[in-house]
Amino acid sequence: MEGYKHRGPVNCDVDFDPSNLKGKTAIVTGGANGIGEAYVRALVAAEVTVCIGDLDAAKGKILEAELPGIKFIECDITKWDDQVRLFREAVSFSPTGKIAYVVANAGIIRQDDVFSYSVKNQEPSKPDLSTIDVNIKGTLYTVKLSLHYFVKQNGQEPSSIQEDTCLVLIGSGAAFLDCLRIPQYSATKWAMRGIMHSLRRTSFYYGGRVNVISPWYVKTNILSEEDFAHVTDVGVQFAEAEDAGQCLLRILSDTSINGHSFFIAARKWASRGYMDLDLDDYPGNTLLLEVQEDQVKSAPVSMGLFV
Ligand SMILES: NC(=O)c1ccc[n+]([C@@H]2O[C@H](COP(=O)([O-])OP(=O)(O)OC[C@H]3O[C@@H](n4cnc5c(N)ncnc54)[C@H](O)[C@@H]3O)[C@@H](O)[C@H]2O)c1
């Protein structure tokens, strides 16, 4: 594996062969429901061993009983100890003792106290920032543990014997669109792209890759029925959870895909329901390319492991 290089958007309109995933092990946070469940089902179909870390034990146990080669581990991603246990149990459950893929999918959206206006003449109340706790803090715990195991498995000397690993972060339309009245959620989803940008040029040291999947509206439990009914009423087409599952397999099966953001799109925008947005580089912008080069050269040397 070589260092990060922008090679243009990944062609998502092609057939691909996920057979190289067979026998690998993946962790999916928030995999008990919704789009996370679709990632789990796609991975299981590709004969990947999957560990789900989720709060929803009832649904997790149902999936564990239904699907072959999966383990449910009750886990609140905002709790460091829970995630340490998730990764430890996943390593024990893995037939190879290794974790190849991590999908940091667990996420929430709430009515945003940062946006809502306190009634006139009242003092503003301290906003509830639990969306940040789950979507950023919880995900950063997942990132930290992923890197720990990837480095432990592969070392930090790039070589042909390192086994491919991939971290997949879950963004949203809110990671690149103007989404109204949800500054906190938008901040958390832009953050997924920030994490990816921060890691994609060093991940090759441990044979790793990092990518983002950003879903458009998909009917799940994340919003209320009323919210989803409104999407339908205004004539907006949904994306499909199964297409997100295929997008994940497309990313994992091609070891050259690193540092990209994929959009799980309504089928009217993408024939297979997913596309590479090619948002994360500035080809042709000579100023930004030069600034980026200077940024890489001048990155603080005291910041750790990779030089
Ligand atoms: N559905 C959409 O329209 C949509 C659009 C864009 C992005 N997304 C993103 O996709 C991801 C999955 O969303 P979804 O629509 O499937 O939601 P969902 O609510 O259907 O499922 C989320 C899962 O995460 C779990 N979870 C929540 N908080 C957790 C925590 N603290 N620890 C462990 N597990 C936790 C829930 O129990 C649930 O199983 C989220 O990151 C979300 O932001 C969804």
Automatic annotation (TrEMBL):
Q: Which top-rank group of organisms is this from?
A: Eukaryota
Q: From the Swiss-Prot or TrEMBL record, give the protein name.
A: Uncharacterized protein
